[in-house]
Amino acid sequence: MTDDARTPTIVTSHREIAASAERIFELIADPAQQPRWDGNDNLGEAAEGQRVRATGEVFTVTLTYGSVRENRVVEFEEARRIAWLPSEPGKQPPGHLWRWELEPLDEGRTRVTHTYDWSRLTDENRLARARSTTADRLRASLDRLAELAES
């Protein structure tokens, strides 16, 4: 919790998607696909050919207002989990993390959990934006992801 103890610093949403974990993970692990399902309406575009395959990789996205972010992959398990720390190019990550976890329920259904963790965010300029990233916004990403994966 933040100092005011009302705003959670770890926000999570989840839903079941009628698609395989592999299909869903392809949409998440390929940065070029991310603007299609981003419920925060924050991602403008990402170059093709950056599909993530391991911890330690870095992919780049351009935000809707034109800034570029490098995203350092800190957790990775193919078709199960991916998490990254965004930062300005060439700078240390300020401490917020995006995580996706996929749990296959059967061949055609997957429980997907999306988490935004800003408990270690050190950049005061990003606090207002972090506070505005609610479970509803994470759910919007999940809903858009489901629409793409189920089509």
Report what the structure shows.
The protein has 151 residues and is an alpha+beta fold. Helix content is 23%, strand content 35%. α1 crosses α4. This is SRPBCC family protein. It comes from Saccharopolyspora rosea. InterPro entries: Polyketide_cyclase/dehydratase (IPR019587), START-like_dom_sf (IPR023393).
Secondary structure: elements and pairs:
Layout: E1 10-17, H1 21-29, H2 34-37, E2 43-45, E3 58-63, E4 68-77, E5 81-87, E6 97-106, E7 109-117, H3 127-131, H4 135-150
Antiparallel strand pairs: 1-7, 2-3, 3-4, 4-5, 5-6, 6-7
Helix pairs in contact: 1-4
Pfam family, one: Polyketide_cyc2
Protein name: SRPBCC family protein
Organism: Saccharopolyspora rosea
Q: What's the CATH architecture?
A: 2-Layer Sandwich
Q: Which range does the strand content fall in?
A: 35-45%
How many alpha or pi helices? 4
The fold-level CATH name is Alpha-D-Glucose-1,6-Bisphosphate, Chain A, domain 4
Structural category: alpha+beta
How would you characterize the largest beta sheet?
7 strands, antiparallel
The level 1 CATH classification is Alpha Beta
Order of helices and strands: EHHEEEEEEHH
What's the rounded overall pLDDT mean? 94
| Count of beta strands | 7
How many domains make up the coordinates?
1
Low-confidence stretches: none
InterPro entries: Polyketide_cyclase/dehydratase (IPR019587), START-like_dom_sf (IPR023393)
Protein name: SRPBCC family protein
